[in-house]
Amino acid sequence: MKLNRLNIQILVIILLFTISTNVFAQSKPDVNKQLENNFKRIVLKYKKDPAAADILWTEIVSNYSGEKRHYHTMEHLQNFYVQLQKCRKLTTDPDLLFMASLYHDVIYNSEDHRDEERSAELAVKRLGEISYPAEKITKCKDLILATKTHALSADADTNYFNDADMTILGLDQQIYERYVKNVRLEYGNTPQFDAGRKRILQYFLKMDRIYKTDFFNQLYEKQARANIAWEISTL
Predict the structure, then answer these.
(1) Comparing C-alpha atoms, which of 183, 192, 162 is closest to residue 108?
(2) Torsions phi, psi of 155, nearest 5?
(3) How far is residue 102's CA from residue 144's CA, in Å, rounded to a whole number?
(4) Each residue of 7-33: pLDDT tens digit?
(5) Per residue in 64-114, pLDDT tens?
(6) Which whole number is the average pLDDT over 212-218?
(7) More exposed terminus of the chain, fewer Cβ within 10 Å: N or C?
(8) Confidence of residue 5 (pLDDT cuts 50, 70, 90)
(9) What is the pTM of this model?
(10) Distances (CA, A) of 137 to 53, 99, 128, 141, 170
(11) Among candidates 74, 46, 76, which has minimal Cα distance to 61?
């Protein structure tokens, strides 16, 4: 097989991170601090107001710490961050992807069931308040809305973003089983939950590729399909 420069780069990065693919390789407080420091670094780049950065960060943490959240929590953001760090050299704007990740589930269980739209709206508002560049705000909104379907995009960064969001599907089965339990805690009271969940899982299995990028496909595709097949067997 002939390898081009991009494929070689992907293989090298995968090799470097294979040992640490488990999201729990670092302690949770350490990752949370990295999230906070990175967020404030970006905010202060555009708005020289540490107090404002503190308020914005507190809002994010508060939203993801809601008592009705079990999967869409700070732990999910930690994994998202770890995965984006793995592919950062393959993306064009790692800071933008990071900011979008923090806001992608900031609104959860909204009354009109438009969580992604509401999250995108809040991201646009907050990023506008810090004078984040307009074109970056638009891209951030598009990234958040892309998580509604995780469909293949013509934009490579969007595919890396969606894949990073979906990596929970391809982690070790023990982690996946805890994810399944937490999803059920969030949505289990929904009428026809099992039937709806099964349809979603079958939708993923019917995809030619769950992970659209070669990078994440090579890391997680095989385990994701095994995990999903296992869960379907329990429904």
Answers:
(1) 183
(2) -95, 120
(3) 10
(4) 545 544 444 443 334 444 445 678 999
(5) 999 999 999 999 999 999 999 999 999 999 999 999 999 999 999 888 889
(6) 98
(7) N
(8) low
(9) 0.88
(10) 17, 10, 7, 6, 30
(11) 74
The contacts of residue 232 (CB under 8 Å, 6+ apart) are 198, 201, 202, 205
One-letter amino acid identity for 196? G
Q: How far is CA 94 from CA 6, 80, 115, 160, 223, in A?
A: 18, 12, 24, 10, 26
What one-letter code names the amino acid at 149? T
> What six digits make up the tokens of 116?
């992604």
CB atoms within 10 A of CB 13: 17
Amino acid letter for position 199: R
Identify which of 126, 136, 60 has the alpha carbon closest to the alpha carbon of residue 94.
136
Do residues 205 and 80 make contact, with C-beta atoms less than 8 angstroms apart? Answer: no
- Alpha carbon 53 to its chain centroid, in Å, reads 22
**Residue ranges of domains in the chain, CATH in brackets:** 5-234 (1.10.1300.10)
C-alpha 19, offset from chain centre = 20
> Among all chains, which residue has been given the structure tokens 């097949």?
229
Look at the block and give the residue holding tokens 């907050």.
126
Q: Which amino acid is at 197?
A: R
